[in-house]
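Lab meeting, action items carried over

1. Structure of the two-component assembly. Owner: GW. Status: complete.
Input record:
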Amino acid sequence: MSYLLQLLVSGLVVGSIYALAALGFVLIYKSSRVINFAHGQFIAVGAFLVYALVVYLGANVGLALAAALALTAGLGFLVEKLFLRPLVGQPIISVIMVTIGLASLIDGLVHLTPLGGGNFSLPRFLPEGGIAFLGVSVSYPQVLAVVLTLVFLLAFGWFFQRSTLGAAMRAVADDQMAAMSLGVSVEHVFALAWAAAGITAAAAGFIVGTISGINLQGLVAIGLKVFPVVILGGLDSIPGAVVGGVIIGVLENLATGYLDPLIPGGGTGEVFPFLVLLLVLWFKPHGLFGTEEIERV
Amino acid sequence: MRNPWAETGNYKTSYRQDSTIFATYLEELSLVGLLALLVGLPFFLSRPQMFVVDLILIYALAVLGLNIITGYAGLINIGQAAFVGVGAYTAALLAPGLPFWLTIPLGGLAAAAAGAIVGIPSLRIKHLYLAIATLAFQVIFEWIVGHAPLLKQGGAIPMPRVVFLGYRVGYKNHYYFWYFVALALLVLLAFAFRNLLRTRFGRALVAVRDNDRAADAMGMHPGLTKIFAFALGAFYAGVAGGLYAYFSRAVVIEDYMLPVSIKFLAMAIVGGLGSLPGSFLGPAFLVLLDLNMEDFANWLKSLGLSYAGVDIASAMRPLTFGLVIVLFLVFEPRGLANWWRLVRNYFKNWPFRY
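Predicted assembly:
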């Protein structure tokens, strides 16, 4: 029983990372219909920025996180202006490929710094140990991960429901033409969505850094895991990203916990989310909360 | 007056004339010239150079397949390397018992079957959702190969040396022999590719790409057409995989993973989506770029431009690769094929401007 609970709790922690990562991904898709294959690289950039600020410049962790969030927001903004703006109106394949090219470009840039190869870990800033209940132990970094995710989700929820900019973003996602005719700057909203995606990606990267070590491959792999999450939740649904993230995180951990001993070689956690993805695509293509496309001739 | 050597105007008066492959003798002549050049090429190149040329031809085959799926049918395929892998592993499993001229087509057929299965979701889903389904196929393929004891869990499966017409292909002429096999297959399949658009099935592909509901209303079956596109494109990939297995003398999972799929997509984009010359120019450009980048990185290192903990080579390759994709998409979305077209038209119309 406590084994199951332990798996559920660690699944919840991993799931909250996925939820944060997926949130940014969905924001971009919802506003501009772009699938961002460079999302894993955004996460990596966020994590490495925190690491570099803390280790090389000796900054305080909180300060470093704030600076990293701001910088990745700037990165997202810049990427939209430089690469996505010229491709408005081009076929989907071009838009997908430009994010793939961008992913490769960022990979190369990270490799130009000493952070490209090898494992790094943030200096410990939380006390040792953790909380134990019902025979399950949760370390402080894991608690921090869940709390930070909740904070970010609440902040974004507030932003979308209460602020003018958030309302503008929702309006553009709902109907671009109508929003434009009412004076909402669609360009502005696109750039903002990318900046917001940068922020959530950096937050996800930071959380990974507090829980475990950071390396480029691992962080980029999270960008790939976002796909099952958003397909399960629905590509254009923000609650879907959160629910999908938690479900995929828990399923992945359950698969690792229960199926790995049965299968020689293990690693079921890696492939299980993608099997779920295929099943969802077959039986419920628009996910749990996605808008169904209704086609008319 | 119609000039049989140059196209001086549109003199076509019937449908039959309009659907001829060669408009002028010059076009026939240039095709024969190109083939003669390709057949004669190995006699002027050294062994390491042949390695590069072989690689380009095999990649061109896979990119041709991708151009059927993504270029003609408009289905974004992020799993082409997995189809290539299916062909390669099939060839590797059959190679001890069967001759290569059977294993390579069988690899193609196995990949086509895999392609048809991957295409099944296209009955219900489209666009981005389908792209993600092919991504899932790629990940699942890698996992299955990584866990199958039969496939050495992704480790190297050696390929035997082949004997053809009593002639044993050894170390010295390995790349030369496979050049001619690849060339023969490529000419055959490129011819099929070029003619696909002249057939019912090829036209259905383009119709479904442009508007699948309209195609449905015209009596085509969009779902089956998409599955056909996947199967055909995967067949090309499988043949490329079988060739690649023999060519590289071992089958390793690293050659069929996600980055390779992305490389194929990049080759198709850089060459020009859905274009036959582009399917050769794209792979040639990226293979040569990759090789030159290695030299360039070594040169930078020799200048003392490296610092601790940084491997310039591992940075320059993704950097230039990404830069090339992005620059092409922003500045020349029609790819190298468009440059080829401009140059060709200049000479075709010379001395006139147009």
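2. GW to write a short summary for the group page. Key points so far: Chain B is about 70% helix and 0% strand. The longest helix of chain B spans residues 222-248.
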